[in-house]
Amino acid sequence: MTFEKVCKLTDIPEGGVIGVEVGETPVALVRRGSEVNALHDVCSHAEVKLSEGEVYDDSLECWLHGSCFDLRSGKPTGPPATKPVPVYQVKIDGDDVLVSLSKES
Description:
Layout: E1 4-8, E2 17-22, E3 25-32, E4 35-40, E5 54-56, E6 59-61, E7 68-70, E8 76-78, E9 87-93, E10 96-100
């Protein structure tokens, strides 16, 4: 599994979300304390950036129509989305955030 450095932990606001690129893949990074979750940064319902949405508990809400996605599984937790978004592996190395797009576990 190949991990790519995408940002510093301090680049992600506590309880917030930012968008980054891993190669050509848009990724939304959500930080809660020292935990970071990575989801595909495109809503499966309306194809807009999820990183422009809001974080609520364990979900990321799309700003356009309010679809919510579980931070760990990518599954929709609120309509109108019915399809999940991919989630990616994250490692923290010191203050560096690394993401792998690989499906291997």
